[in-house]
Write a structure and sequence with these properties.
Chain lengths: ~190, ~290
């Protein structure tokens, strides 16, 4: 099913609980962006007992490093990066209150378990659809770690951002279910 | 290997490296905004054939994305890639006006700025540190017969690159061993490699040759089979086999996990059977030009 999802700026626990693996969503509201270098820095800060320059509680992180915006545009190409690379940071960030992440690709079983344990979500956006996803982004500002260039933490305002629920709060894993359903070959 | 038609000119033919610089600058943008006709055609066919509803929805969105990028001349994907440049320099060419390698890297910088591409290069693999200008690229240069320069720019995103693998098989492993390794590599690439894939396979040569063959295989149009009938058959068998893995577009499940498999081969040692699998994603960005 296709549903409108409001994340403004947090995703309510009730909304998160209602989503099921396989649900297609169109997100309106606010996402924070972060990928490898920013997540590393966040976890280092938290581990050292420091405070982040933004509040993660209830937020959704979109794992993306966009291209620079052409003149007159809000953002460049902005499709998702491979979320599984963020696995080493997941427990810490979800433990700090993060409600979920958006990325591409699947997580291994140990990653799925981390989402389930925190009651958090993983949403999959389409890898490579950088131009069309960019059209759903209405405003961009750098929030932190500007020195990281494309890997900085941004605030993206979005309207109708398409994603699929890949891991729901109960730990149902769309990628695993889908492959089992369609596999006809045992290598 | 195709040769550019020789040009009439006194031998050696002078080619200013600035021309190579500007050609690289042009091609790196073109590769990123305009997906290849062969891949777009394959995506359209796959969208018609895909039986998984979520998988088909992904393919339709990807086609829309590539058409949008072409129309608006914006990068189709935000990972505008590590720039890999193949230069085939004719024996009768004299490169003048500077260091050709510096010219290539400068062309990457210029194209990155002009095309609003992403600076995706770190200066050192261990110390990291974004170089800020998307350079340097990677250059594979070789001397060929003739008096022209063939420039191929391949922009390689690393979601797919990270899933590539190489193995030193033994002669006894044979073609069945090769098939097993290719299928297993695609299986392990799974959803993270950004399917549907284009799969480049290099067989033979030495350790590093096999990898380079696999990368070059990705620059051949995916609707063009290898001229050797046994290898053409193997390409088709492998494509069919990996499409049975069930991964589907973006791992959403389905029967179109890959759009094509290209194989390149080279003679190898009597004790060896190196095989490299370079996973490419559905953007499969490459453009070429003859100078």
């Amino acid at each position: 099913m296709l549903r409108q999802l409001i994340i403004d700026p947090v995703l309510s626990p009730a909304d998160a609980r209602e989503l099921r693996a396989g649900d297609r969503v169109l997100i309106t509201g606010e996402l924070l962006t972060a990928r490898d270098a920013a997540c590393q820095r966040m976890v280092e800060t938290l581990s050292a007992g420091g405070r982040l320059p933004f509040d993660l509680a209830g937020r959704i992180i979109y794992a993306v490093g966009p291209t620079p915006a052409k003149p007159g545009r809000v953002v460049g190409s902005a499709g998702p990066t491979t979320a599984a690379r963020l696995l080493p940071f997941l427990d810490r960030l979800l433990g700090a209150g993060l409600r979920g992440i958006i990325g591409k690709g699947d997580f291994p079983p140990e990653g799925v378990e981390i989402f389930r344990r925190h009651g958090a979500l993983y949403l999959a956006a389409i890898g490579g659809a950088g131009a069309t996803i960019a059209k759903t982004i209405t405003a961009v500002e750098v929030v932190a770690y500007g020195d990281l260039g494309p890997e900085a933490v941004h605030r993206f305002r979005v309207r109708g951002f398409p994603a699929v629920v890949a891991i729901d709060v109960e730990g149902n894993n769309l990628h695993e279910m889908a492959r089992a359903r369609w596999r006809r070959l045992q290598p | 290997m195709s040769l550019g038609a020789p040009l009439t000119s006194p031998s050696p033919r002078q080619v200013p490296v600035a021309r190579i610089r500007d050609t690289v600058a042009q091609l790196v943008v073109e590769a990123n905004v305009a997906i290849g006709d062969d891949v777009l055609a394959a995506l359209r066919r796959a969208a018609e054939e895909e039986e998984s509803p979520l998988g088909r929805d992904v393919l339709v969105q990807l086609i829309d994305n590539y058409e949008t990028a072409r129309r608006e001349r914006v990068p189709a994907c935000q990972d505008t890639g590590l720039t890999i440049v193949f230069l085939e320099v004719g024996q009768d060419v004299h490169l003048v006006g500077g260091d050709v390698r510096a010219a290539v890297h400068e062309g990457i910088r210029l194209g990155t700025r002009a095309g609003y591409l992403r600076s995706s290069v770190v200066a050192d693999p261990l110390l990291r540190g974004n170089t800020g200008d998307n350079a340097p690229g990677i250059i594979h240069m070789r001397i060929v017969p003739g008096n022209r320069v063939h420039v191929t720019v391949a922009c390689k995103g690393f979601g797919s690159e990270n899933k590539s693998r190489l193995k030193m098989l033994t002669p006894a492993d044979g073609v069945e061993g090769v098939k097993k390794f290719v299928i297993e590599t695609v299986d392990r690439a799974g959803a993270q490699g950004c399917p549907p894939f284009v799969v480049g396979v290099g067989i033979g040569g030495s350790f590093e040759t096999a990898a380079l063959l696999a990368k070059k295989a990705l620059t051949r149009p995916i609707d063009r089979r290898h001229p050797r009938p046994d290898l053409a058959r193997l390409e088709e068998e492998l494509l069919d086999a990996v499409n049975g893995l069930g991964i589907g577009p973006q791992g959403m499940g389905g029967i179109r996990t890959a759009l094509g498999v290209n194989i390149e081969v080279y003679p190898t040692h009597i004790a060896g059977l190196p095989v490299a699998v370079n996973i490419g994603c559905h953007s499969n960005r490459h453009r070429d030009m003859w100078i």
